[in-house]
C-alpha cells in the first residue's frame, strides 16, 4: 500500500470494547452490533447468528404475507449494501475493521442460508446453522484469502456471504449423496 492510499483503519485508533452506550451512540453501531447480540462476551458471532436465525423465523411466522421469499431476498440485498457502510463505520470507531462484536455480516448471511434451505425441519436448519458457523469460524480457502484481500465494510460483509455460499453448497452435496 503506498503512502497516498489511506489504510482502512488508521493505526493510531485505539481498539475499544463496545458497550451498550457505544451501540446506542449511532444507528450504524446499533445495526452492525446486531441490536446488542454482538455485545455478548462469549462467542458474539454465534450469538449474532442465533439472533439472525430467530429473527428470520419470528418475522416469517408473524408476517407471512409480507415476509415472503421475494421480500427476504430484497431485505438481504439491501441489508448487505447497508451493512458495508455500517460495518465500515463501526469498525473504524472500534479501531478494528472486523471486530468480533460486529455481527451484521453473520445476520445477513444466516438469513441467506435460511431463505435457501427453508422449508426445512428444525434439525435441517440446525445443521445449516452449524455448518455455516464452521465455515465462518474456520474460514477455509478461499474464504480466508478473500478476507485477507478485501478490507473494510465490504470485506466484513462479503466473507460471510462466501461462507453462506459454501454452507449451501455443502448442504446441497449432502442431500445429493
3D structure, described in words:
37% of the residues are buried. This protein has 8 helices and no strands. It is mainly α and 177 residues long. Helix 5 crosses helix 6. It has one domain.
Distance between the ends? 46 Å
**For the report, how would you describe the main beta sheet?**
none
Structural class: mainly alpha
Kindly estimate the percentage of residues that lie in beta strands according to DSSP: under 5%
Number of domains: 1
According to DSSP, the number of beta strands is 0
Unreliable stretches (pLDDT < 50, length at least 5) are 1-7
- The tally of helices reads 8
Shape: globular
- Proportion of residues in helical segments: 55-70%
Q: Give the mean pLDDT.
A: 91
Rg estimate, integer Å:
16 Å
List the helices and strands and how they pair.
Elements: H1 20-24, H2 27-32, H3 44-62, H4 69-94, H5 104-117, H6 122-138, H7 143-149, H8 152-176
Can you give keywords for this protein?
globular; 177 residues; mainly alpha; 8 helices
Short recap of the structure:
Helix content is 67%, strand content 0%. With 177 residues, the chain is mostly helical. It has one domain.
Amino acid at each position: 500500500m503506498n503512502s497516498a492510499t489511506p489504510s482502512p483503519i488508521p493505526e493510531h485508533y485505539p481498539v475499544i470494547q463496545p458497550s451498550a452506550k457505544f451501540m446506542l451512540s449511532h444507528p450504524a453501531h446499533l445495526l452492525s452490533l446486531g441490536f446488542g447480540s454482538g455485545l455478548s462476551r462469549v462467542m458474539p458471532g454465534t450469538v449474532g447468528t442465533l439472533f439472525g436465525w430467530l429473527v428470520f423465523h419470528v418475522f416469517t411466522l408473524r408476517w407471512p404475507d409480507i415476509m415472503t421469499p421475494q421480500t427476504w431476498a430484497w431485505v438481504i440485498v439491501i441489508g448487505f449494501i447497508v451493512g458495508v457502510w455500517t460495518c465500515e463505520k463501526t469498525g473504524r470507531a472500534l479501531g478494528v475493521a472486523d471486530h468480533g462484536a460486529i455481527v451484521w455480516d453473520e445476520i445477513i448471511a444466516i438469513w441467506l442460508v435460511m431463505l435457501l434451505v427453508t422449508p426445512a425441519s428444525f434439525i435441517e436448519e440446525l445443521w445449516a446453522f452449524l455448518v455455516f458457523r464452521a465455515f465462518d469460524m474456520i474460514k477455509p480457502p478461499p474464504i480466508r484469502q478473500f478476507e485477507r484481500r478485501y478490507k473494510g465494510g465490504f470485506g466484513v460483509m462479503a466473507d460471510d456471504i462466501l461462507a453462506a455460499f459454501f454452507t449451501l453448497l455443502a448442504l446441497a452435496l449432502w442431500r445429493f449423496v
